[in-house]
Amino acid sequence: MKKTLVLGATDNPARYAYRAVHQLKQHGHEVVPVGIRKGQVAGLDIRNDRPAAEGVDTVTLYVGPQNQPGWYDYILDLNPKRIIFNPGTENPELEKLARQRGIETEEACTLVMLSVGQY
């Protein structure tokens, strides 16, 4: 299973990030929810700091490109195998930085990937 950091996690059930945390857990993945505000989602505490997370396979983004620059160093220093840019989070600058470090990038929807078994 793939340890996944969900950046933009929220306790708001109307948001896709909320659904992603639930679906990732249901598919057996270890999830690290990181968001702007503390709260809980799927029984997990949402961190609003930049937690050290070892062995992150995937960072899945639910933060718009205008709010991503402050997270660049944190995301890249996690050294994940891949970063998923969910719809609305596409960012050529961060994609380029990631690829320069050997991190795979995908413009895709985590929820769709999980539902069709391609996560």
Automatic annotation (TrEMBL):
Gene3D superfamilies: NAD(P)-binding Rossmann-like Domain. InterPro entries: CoA-bd, NAD(P)-bd_dom_sf. Pfam families: CoA_binding_2. Residues 2-114 form the CoA-binding domain. This is CoA-binding domain-containing protein.
